[in-house]
Amino acid sequence: MVNKLKEITAIAEKRGFFFPTAEIYGGKAGLYTYGHLGKLMKNKFEWLWKCYFLEENFWEIEGNSILPEAVFKASGHLKNFNDPLTECKNCHFRFRADEIIEDVLDKNAEGLSVKDMDSLIKKHKLKCPKCGSQQLTKVEWFNMMFPISIGAVGGKDVAYLSPETAQNPFLSFKREFEALRKKLPFGLAMIGKVFRNEISPRQLFFRLREFTQAELQIFFDPSEIDTHTEWKKIAKYKLLLQTVKDRKGDKVKAVSCEEVNKKLKLPKLYVFYMQQIQKFYLEELGIPKDKFRFHELSSEEKAFYTKLHWDVQLNLESLGGFKEITGLHYRTDYDLEAHQKHSKKELSVYLERKKKRVLPHVIELSFGVDRNIFALLDIFFKQEKERNLFSFPSAIAPIEVGVFPLVSKDGLPEMTKEIYGELRKNHISCFYDEDGSIGRRYRRIDEIGVPFAVTVDYQTMKDKSVTIRERDSMKQKRVKISELAKHLK
Length: 489
Ligand code: GAP
Prior knowledge:
The chain is an alpha+beta fold. Residues 164, 166, 196, 198, 207-208, 211, 213, 215, 324-327, 364, 366, 368, 370-371 line the site of glycyl-adenosine-5'-phosphate.
């Protein structure tokens, strides 16, 4: 497990997926840079996400990372967006109280009060993870938002770096509703940077202080929460679920959408998006079924703004088991109601067809893009006798084709560069390399997950054909250059 994490991190840093920011100054925990491969992969993930989730009347907007204090007073983040902090009186190391409880006592500490955490720390004589002292301060709540001050007014105009993209669609809802077809359901998505002052960022690239979220807020008429026009098509589809009860014994059950609606009492609209999300992971990203589950959060664990909360968890060997990657939240009218109250602006809307006013409710899909990228690296990493590889599906592979001359002489490089240019014109992301033996070049692209290699050899000169090598099977076949782009696509 530790080795897999080390291997992936070493390849990521060496080959340009991700690496610590400001490394030359010693870096800063929780800040990472995407190198050229990581950025290509992130772009692809975001594009795929948009193509998949932005259905009819769902749109993308781009708001701000800096938002005024009033927004977070209304949203409840100033009061509730906290982590439990304790400090070692001996070495002054500050860390999360819930994490030390989870690590040492192997007990889920999410949702515990500070009093409960204090008692557990005392009862089990928990120690500072850094110096081993038992002298820890009382647990306090620590707000995770980064405050900033706007302009040259000496800290009077307070704002915060936003800890979720979600607030932007809530703030823009009324304008966009008016600008579009004044119809519900209506979706506003935003992909953007968010910031959280994590007390102890760990698990490297997995828990960050600056990261990207891809979130979709679906605004709907609350009287329609138990309907969906496509329901019949998905009713028999089986969701992979771990309810709170199933945690004992770590069980996952396959339950049809119909049963989830009837027996678990989850509304059809919510179940519909569970199904959409599961299909995205299994069919678009190619995640194996046994590595995927929806994990129900208990009422103590749920975020303060949500009524229903199930997370997507993926089994990541390098991090020791199932980890939260994505959330599906039923936020009700919590946010619109709060912004309406604090701004004193009417946020309900008139539905012409139904002749009524409603304050819409919201279902939120909340994807952490970076965690998804890390999960893909973990799940598709393979070590074989003679090579390391990422067996990414083409849809998310950072580069799709390596284009090589067999040797770098006799006109082969020139011919290869022509083919490389043609493939680029066909919007196939490719990479040219003529350094080292052909075997080494194949290994190098396997290590970064390129699905195909095209090799130009002496036969190409004779019959205008090239070989295509497939990464996972390493099988090769010959294809005419005139059919190459079509064949690869
Ligand atoms: N708008 C709802 C929201 O922000 P969340 O559960 O706090 O919900 C959503 O965050 C997703 O953002 C998580 O499922 C995770 O993928 C990602 N995320 C949260 N904290 C993170 C962190 N410190 N580093 C990287 N990703 C994080």
